[in-house]
Amino acid sequence: MxxxxxxxxxxxxxxxxxxxxxxxxxxxxxxxxxxxxxxSKSVGPWRERVAFFxxxxxxxxxxTPFAGAVTVSLEFILPRPAxxxxxxxxxxxxxxxxxxxxxxCLDALTNVCFLDDSQVVxxxxxxxxxxxxxxxxxxxxxxxxxxx
Length: 148
What we know:
Elements (H helix, E strand, L loop, with lengths): L7 E7 L8 E6 L5 E5 L4 H18 L9 E9 L19 H12 L10 E10 L7 E8 L4
Helix pairs in contact: 1-2
């Protein structure tokens, strides 16, 4: 008897990865709940783009959001500065923070690739500056179950 194959979805999201920043307090709503706003204006559009491409990838495989443990791999390709040499490989030691970019992506994939980001039992994330002529964005791999 063979073991069932792991369910896996892979997709590319073009654009500039945006970090999930801190929230700022804006006051209280009429019901007494706090009103919080994202400190980054770019995170909303980035999360929408991630959800859109994630949904397309899931639909192309006729898959529903994974219900159990998942492993997520993220490779962020950050925009290359115009002033950078065409030949030089640059380390990605500047903003945005890797953990905040990952947080924005996991939030965006909730109810798209998995039911809740608490299901992520393993997260592999990296960031690098784009090579000359390479587009910025993020490569996603979501696998049902923990990595072997």
